[in-house]
Specification:
By secondary structure, this protein is an alpha/beta fold. The protein is built from 13 helices and twelve strands. Helices cover 38% and strands 15% of the residues. Helix 4 runs parallel beside helix 10 and helix 5 runs parallel beside helix 6. The structure holds pyridoxal-5'-phosphate (PLP).
């Protein structure tokens, strides 16, 4: 017997996407935004004062909380800041799940959810999506303490309508966490549901739409009662002074944000058309990646050949998704390199 709790001994831990050190590679494997954050972020970083570093940060990250509240048209007490959206997921498992309180979610989805279920020692009820990635009706009847729907979903990019998630919130019984890490690239979001339902938590991330994956900043939107409960689990200083300043500058620059999102969406359309032309099938994406399957060539083979050419996309050797590639939308130049490499490898097959 080791020193760890049995479920921790058994846990494999989450395997993050490969982070190559070489800057010459085309990196389309972890859904980072291909564009830099707003220059306002660099400006505030250059203005960080020794005093800001000497003192502990604001435990509530009030400046960001206020700005995020305005952007989402809610009161500040509907917002809780966290150290990336992943921290909120961990807190939700701790808050709502245990041996007798399962989590439920449709699959395939974000591979962190089963990892967190293992760490929390709670049962995970996994309900498969149909081929069109519609919300499974059975999800409403699981009796789970926590139901998670990733919307737009990762790794499929598919989107579930807000009214369907409203019905799920109504029927689910427990808490419904809607993981909107990628929602900035979609046409709609579920923020309005927090006004109608006392069991809905929305997860937002600054990593994707705001190009701040290196910073680690995300937030929850929920009714003040839920936020107050989650705050009990929060590290007092989960967001540091530097990241609070940078994330606040980023969320306030609405014009830059809109421009970046439009560029990614336009490139997503172009990439999707080009991939289809090369024989790939892909569901419509509401995210900053596409989930592609080639009609005749195995995903694993394509993945290997791209790696040889220093191009990284995401591949999972997992049942159900082992013939798909998740490809982040890059800049037009990065995507052109990917498309050229694909043409070459598919021709030689
Ligand atoms: C579906 C999903 N949810 C949440 C997150 C967490 O994002 P972050 O912790 O970078 O804010 C990610 C990150 O890749 C994700 O893919």
């Amino acid at each position: 017997m080791g020193y760890f709790r049995e479920n921790i001994e058994k846990a494999k831990g989450y395997e993050p996407g490969f982070q190559p050190k070489d800057s010459a590679v085309v990196k389309l494997n972890t859904n980072e935004n291909p564009y830099p954050p707003t220059p306002m972020v660099l400006k505030v970083l250059s203005e960080i004062s020794p005093e800001q570093l000497r003192r502990y940060p604001d435990p509530m990250a009030s400046a960001f909380r206020q700005a995020a509240a305005e952007v989402n048209s809610v009161a500040p007490d509907y917002i809780m800041c966290c150290n990336g959206g992943d921290e909120l997921l961990k807190m939700a498992f701790q808050a709502f799940c245990d041996e007798n309180r399962p989590v439920a979610y449709p699959v395939p989805t974000y591979s962190l959810y089963p990892v967190l279920a293992g760490l929390q020692n709670c049962k995970a009820v996994e309900i498969p999506f149909d081929n069109e990635f519609n919300l499974p009706a059975k999800l409403a009847g699981t009796g789970a303490a926590l139901t998670i729907v990733c919307n737009p979903n990762a790794p499929t990019g598919s989107f579930i309508n807000v009214d369907e998630l409203a019905s799920l919130a109504d029927e689910a019984g427990g808490v419904l966490l809607i993981d909107e890490a990628y929602v900035d690239f979609a046409e709609k979001n579920c923020t309005a549901l927090v006004k109608d339902f006392d069991n809905v938590i929305i997860l937002r991330s600054m990593s994707k739409g705001y190009s701040l994956a290196g910073l680690r900043f995300g937030y929850a939107i929920a009714r003040p009662d839920l936020i107050a409960g989650l705050l009990k689990l929060k590290d007092s200083y989960n967001a540091d002074a530097i990241s609070i300043s940078a994330a606040t500058a980023a969320i306030k620059d609405r014009e830059y944000f809109k421009q970046t999102i439009e560029k990614v969406k336009a490139e997503r359309s172009r990439l999707s058309v080009q991939l289809k032309g090369l024989g790939f099938e892909l569901p419509e994406s509401s995210s900053n990646f596409v989930f592609a399957e080639h009609k005749s060539v195995k995903a694993k083979d394509i993945y290997g050949k791209l790696v040889q050419r220093n191009i990284f996309v995401r591949y999972w050797d997992l049942e159900g998704i082992d013939n798909k590639l998740r490809i982040s939308v890059g800049t037009p130049e990065q995507d052109d390199r990917l498309l050229a490499a694909l043409k070459e490898t598919l021709d030689t097959d």
